[in-house]
Structures are given as C-alpha cells and as structure tokens.
Amino acid sequence: MRQENLFDRILLYILIPSVFILLYLIFIWSPVEKIMGETQKIFYIHVGTAWVAFLAFFVVGFYSVWTLIKPNMNRYIYAGISAEIGVVFTTITLLSGMTWGRASWNTWWSWEPRLVTTLILLFIYVAYLFIRKMDGSWEKIAKLSSVFGIIGCLNVPIVFMAIRWWNSKLHPVVFGEGKNQSGGGIEPEMLATLLFSVFTITILYVFLMRKGAEIEKMRHIVKKSKNKLINKLAS
Amino acid sequence: MNYLFIAYTATWALIAGYIIVLGKRQMSLKKEMKQLEEWNSEQ
User: Fold this and answer.
1) A62 Cβ partners below 8 Å, 6+ apart?
2) In A, which residues are within 8 Å of B14 by CB distance?
3) Which of A81, A82, A93, B21 could pair covalently with A50 via S-S, beta carbons 3.0-4.6 A apart?
4) B1-43, pLDDT tens digit by residue?
5) What is the pTM (predicted TM-score) of this model?
6) What is d(CA A223, CA A134) in angstroms, rounded to the nearest whole number?
7) Distance CA A158, CA A134 (A)
8) Kind of pairing, strands A175-177 and A183-184?
9) What DSSP line would sit under A161-225, residue for residue?
10) Does A171 lie at the interface with B, CB-CB under 8 angstroms?
C-alpha cells in the first residue's frame, strides 16, 4: 500500500510540472503556423488526447480478452476505468477537432471517415459503460461488456487508418504521407511539443487510471463486507 | 484566438469534470466505510 502511494506521488510530482511545461511549450515556445495562426496550437492537445484515447481503448481490449478467458474483478475494474478515461479523451479529441474544423474549414462537423469512425468508437464505449451499469451478477456483465470492449478495440486501427484507406483530403496525414510514406512531417519545435503533449497526457492517464481503480477496488471490498454483515445480522 | 480558447477551455473542463467525479466517488466511499465501521462497533 505504501509503495502504491509512493508511486502515485511520484506520478503527481512528474505530472504537475509537466502540465506547466506543456502549456509553456504550446503557447510560448512552439512557432506560430503561417496559414492558420494561433488556432493551429489546438493540434497539440487534439493529437495528444487522441493517442491516449487509443491507448486507453487498447488497455480495455487487453483486459477484456483477459476477463473473457479468466474472469477476475481487478481486470474488470481496470477495463472499466480505462474505458471511462478513453471516453473523456475521445470527447476532448472530437470537441477540439470540431473547433479546429470551424476555424479552418468554416464548419463544426463533416461526415468525413476519421470523424465518423471516431464517433462510432465513442458510441461503442458509451454503450460499454452502460452495460457495466446493468443489474446482475458481475461475471455475466463482465463477459457481455468484454465483448463490447473487444469490438471497440478492433475499431481503433480502423479509426487510425480511415484517412489512408478512404483517401480523405480534409483530414491531413501528418506523418508518413503518400505511397512510400515519406511525406508529411512538421517543424522540429512543433514535433517536440507534440511528443511532450503525448507524454504529459499519458502520465495523466496512468494517474487517473490508478486513482480510479483504487477507488473501485475499495468500493468492491466495502460492498462485500456490507453484504457479509447484513447476512450475519439476518441469520 | 477565440477557437483556441474554446478548445483548451473544453479540454480542461472535461478533465476537471472527470477528476471531480473521481473525488465524489471517493467521498461516498469514505461515507460507506464510516457507516460500516459504525455497524461493526454496534455489533
């Protein structure tokens, strides 16, 4: 327990300065893009949260497969918390993307492959979270929700490849554009800011995941103890 | 600049919202634990 607290503290000591450094990098250090101006800086948080949302859903997929093979409360809890964080980050990705779209293409929404597949991904995980709230034995709910978790995880590569497969011109391919995947690319300062954004948001994800799982595990223990006590009193 | 402000405000608001949800869960858990302790002491 002490070691767990120490790890959480270390994470927090890394996370807080990282957030301030990230804000400095985004708003002061990174260059202003010539065509879009300041609005381009949405990109750092948009791409960062999108990557971490993908990571969160891969974690859901991983724990869902494991839960299906061998049901276990801890795995079920980790999958649920990861899905919650994934939903939050996907919503941020969509909202920041919509704001970007409004600024650069004069529209809040376009039925473009990347946007549609991301929206479907969000709906799958919202459904997944609703299933987890259903009444019944946790083993049954765990199995059913795990199937949804895996379906959502399989959708992640489709979201990533959507702009390449359907050749969308609206959503730019930032890295590895073209047939030999040598096109695209951004300025070194922009790349450094983007990488730091991914790092900071990943630390935030790990921190939230640990905190959320810790609360859920305790809640499960309390629920078990309560039921035991009630049964004892009844008998 | 307005759009940049909207995007970052929405981002931090959502993250703060989730942290508040976790905080509320922790508070209700503490209440339940206290209740459990009271029940145990009454036994």
Assistant:
1) A153
2) 88, 91-92, 95
3) A93
4) 688 899 999 999 999 999 999 999 999 999 988 988 888 787 6
5) 0.89
6) 16
7) 29
8) antiparallel
9) HHHHHTT-SSS---EEETTTT-EE---HHHHHHHHHHHHHHHHHHHHHHHHHHHHHHHHHHHHHH
10) no
Angle at CA of residue A212, ends A128 and A2, nearest 5°: 150
- A120 near A148, Cβ under 8 Å? no
A102 touches chain B (CB under 8 A): yes
Q: Where are the domains of chain A?
A: 2-28+40-172+189-234
Contact A39 B4 (CB under 8 A): yes
Distance from A93 to chain B by nearest Cα, in Å? 9
Centroid of chain to Cα A149: 13
- Residue A38 is nearest to which of B4, B19, B22, comparing CB atoms? B4
Q: Does A215 touch chain B (CB under 8 A)?
A: yes
| Class of the CATH domain delimited by A2-28+40-172+189-234 | mainly alpha
Residues near A64 by Cβ (< 8 Å), separated by ≥ 6?
A79, A145, A146, A147, A148, A149, A150, A153
Q: Which residues of A touch B39 (CB under 8 A)?
A: 229
Question: Is pLDDT above 80 for A125?
Answer: yes
Indicate the DSSP class of residue A71. -
Paired tokens of A94: 């969509």
Give the position of tokens 């307005």. B2
Which chain B residues contact residue A41 at CB under 8 A? 4
How far B4 CA lies from chain A's nearest CA (Å)? 5
- Identity of the highest mean pLDDT range in A128-137, A176-185, A200-209: A200-209
Q: What is the pLDDT of residue B31?
A: 92
Terminal CA-CA length for chain A = 34
